[in-house]
Design goal:
Blueprint: H1 2-7, E1 21-26, H2 29-41, E2 49-52, H3 55-62, H4 70-73, E3 80-82, H5 86-115, H6 119-157, E4 161-166, H7 170-182, E5 186-191
Antiparallel strand pairs: 1-4, 1-5, 2-3, 2-4
Helix pairs in contact: 2-7, 5-6
Amino acid sequence: MAELEHWDWTARRGPRGNLREAVAVFDSETDMQEAVDELESHGFSNAAMSRPASPDEITAALRHEVKSVKELEDDATVPREAYIDKDSRSSALLVLVLIPFYVLVLVGVGLAVSQGIGTWETVGLVVFMGAIGAIGGGYFSLKLFRRMQGRMALEQAIGGLLLWVRIGSREQEAKAMQILARHRARDLHLHGPAFSA
């Protein structure tokens, strides 16, 4: 029961403060992703990993511009978000293209059927509507991709990509530190209450 309580995130107790965490900074997204993959393969839940929220949210919460990632590492007031891997972000970008494409293809088919136009006119209309959907979705997908890349660049400019990993036991603590070090994590340390002997 004590272990379940340790992993419980509530509004009253919060996601940190009372929790033991490994703190790591990476120079590249590839190193961070490889570390997360290995942590997950050794029993760490993806929900145990978090990253800083967007720079705008952090600036608003801290009421000053962050000059160094070291300012964020051990500050419990820093807004966080769940870790989202690169593959999931790529899938989201693809969905942004496919959904408007699919919707406008259906609209094209619906228009063709309602107007009773011929086969070739229907094909032309469906292709035209699909192209508009793909171009529109591609535009928003590209904007989101550039925003993601810009955010990574901002984080690297202030010192690197920060990752927090919640720890549930002494054994996990040792394993997390070993894995993070193996993937070239910097400023590697622990914070939060230590486990009793």
